[in-house]
Structure of Protein phosphatase 1 regulatory subunit 37:
Amino acid sequence: MEVPGQGSGPLTVPPEPGNETPPPVEVSLSGAAQGNEDGRLRPGAKRVTFPSDEDIVSGAVEPKDPWRHAQNVTVDEIMTAYKQACQKLNCKQIPKLLKQIQEFKDLAPRIDCLDLKGEKLDYKACEALEEIFKRVQFKIVNLEQTSLDEDGASALFDMIEYYESATHLNISFNKHIGTRGWQAAAHMMRKTNCLQYLDARNTPLLDHSAPFVARALRISSSLIILHLENTSLSGRPLMLLATALKMNMNLRELYLADNKLNGLQDSAQLGNLLKFNSCIQILDLRNNHILDSGLAYICEGLKEQRKGLVTLVLWNNQLTHTGMAYLGMTLPHTQSLETLNLGHNPIGNEGIRNLKNGLIGNRSVLRLGLASTKLTCEGAVAVAEFIAESPRLLRLDLRENEIKTGGLMALSLALKVNHSLLRLDLDREPKKESVKSFIETQKALLAEIQNGCKRNFILAKEKEEKEQKLQQSASMPEITVTEPLEEDPAEDGRDGSATSAPEEGEEAGETLTKPRDQLPAISPASAPSQGNERRISVSSPGRGHKIFVVTRVESLPERAANAVCPQEDTTAVAKSVESQNLAPATKPELLAPWANGTVPESAGDPAVCESLARNTPLPNGLKMDFVRALPEASSDGDGKMGSCAAEHELSCSKNEQELEELLLEASQDAGQEPL
């Protein structure tokens, strides 16, 4: 094979200086220079020499930092750079843009919005915008109806991808971005990690552009919301889109309204999408041609949705009572669907009857749209039956239906037993009736319905506030005790008897009946206490509010206390403990100082006795610091003066074993009482 224009003469490429070794690789460029039969090259053969591996790469250049212009930038710098770019490119400056630049304040985080809606952006105008994008970032970039062509759209999308200029991008109403524009948009969707929202309404996505977008959606890592309303998706574009979205785990909201989607192939693709994708939460299919046949496909996909789809909009899809039969059989299987909008479909009374049992069997629907669905009083009665059975429905839309007195009466009665419905939308003006008095009846029923919704709203708000308080009290427990009241000793003597404790407890609700490990938070009681009594208020989430009165705290039992303390009836003491439902848990280690049967030498000294009583842990688990906060003992009703002996009533048992048995019996009795 001869080199054109060179004939069959030899062509030699000499090696570069200093690269004589290793020996050059000889490549023959002529068929005549293949070599002789012995394999040797003919003299004068054409040769090509390659440098060694170390010399192939002569150098490296670091990539440009996209933010090298964004450090310590000012509004004046941005303004100047944009004006110079417009002058260099010979394009007009955009006054709307200049005004927005002047209003920029904090340039460090993302600026809220760059709004270019309605401005005509040709290729040069788009190139000038790079001076802004390279210096600041935005949350929203609005390019709606900016007359973008392929060149301008490609340039803009490349800039937004390179500089990560926006988290929300609106390119709607641009009908001429073409294949190259969509290709650049798909590259931006695939490469940009910050883009979460893309609005492409009324921007046609045709057959030759759809594969790029589908490929980007299959591996997209950031896009959460996608608007493709009126983008001519029916047919192959929707098939590619739905197939790609089966593998997408990030998209949450998909809007496909006004695409003339049919009830056969398009609906089958949507049904398959719902079978395999459980991440999409909102699917808007309004103003298409789904029909009853298409709804059957979608219902097949809905049955597979154990979690995921929360909102389904089927507004104006020519659905009838036949489609409602499919939907009625599907609703008991859906577990995540909360909003179902069936408005502007000729469902009729029969359709509502087909839907009613499915709605009653469903446990997730909170909002139901039935506006303009050809309902009369008969259909309203079926809806009322669902309302009466539903414990969770929040909103119902019945506007633009012929619901008259009979239907309103059924709805009003249903609201008397329903406590969840917060909003019921009905036509404000009453419907025409043959009997004029019914007009006033309709007005009265409408008022009753609205009052019922208001009542439910107030109840829901009170319930929410109560739950918040309970959560706060459960997460932030507090234990405090009121300070001792300083009162006249004579009054203490009159009111200091222990019999008042259960009475005060009963007044507050009930006495203490829970084991110690179930005690809730304790805080001071607001009610005044009598005499030396100390009240402790107990707030327990979901278990009411209780007030207990502490009149005295007994100290540790003492075997040798008989020598210094007057004896009293042990049974009476145990009954006193049991009457107050106190279940002290005496620990063996607390009895150690007295276990050998000996009495300390200082036991007969009243001062030392009092000191021991105050510094020894109590058998009911209370610390001595808590005892010091209680009032001092005073004379009782019999005129006996309080002393060290009076404070040691629990120590009057004959031995520790008898006392432990009494305390155990008291605690068991307390634990058996109902909560």
User: Anything to note?
Assistant: The first helix runs from residue 53 to 56.
